[in-house]
Amino acid sequence: MEISELQTTLRRTYYQRDAKRGGDATFRWMTEEVGELAKALRHGDHDELVHEFSDVLAWLASLANLTGVDLEEAAARYAHGCPKCGHAPCVCDFAR
Amino acid sequence: MEISELQTTLRRTYYQRDAKRGGDATFRWMTEEVGELAKALRHGDHDELVHEFSDVLAWLASLANLTGVDLEEAAARYAHGCPKCGHAPCVCDFAR
Q1: Given CB atoms, is B20 within the 8 Å cutoff of chain A?
Q2: ipTM score of the complex?
């Protein structure tokens, strides 16, 4: 699936609700899902883990839709390797 | 860009570092980026916002690589609308 397809589908699915709720509440929901991802990392099975990654992605896209961010543009920064050193594998000489 | 392409590129770029650092520290980094996203939402310009969405996406993919999650599989859950009600737009009758 293209990143843009996912973002478009999520716009079609949730934008009306997202806009009514607003950016801060949408950010809060996304953070709640990050917490659920933490829980799944701690003790979830693989299906639960996929489910939580799924939700974090979805809420990230909802937030991107609300704030006018094109996730393809965001992803493009990493399209050719590390945006800092330009290499894949990254050869940055600092802790990451 | 396909979601799988992004995940593969991030694997090629960072997996060695990610594996050395481990899942918990990678989760911590991702959460740090979520915080930077919050800051950019508060006062960043558009480019900063794109940058932070970019970093959250990248760290989410790093974490997916470390935990054996296929982000295409994760994204597929939202491919046809709301995974709960099955519709786009969502017609779920509860607060979201």
Answers
A1: no
A2: 0.96
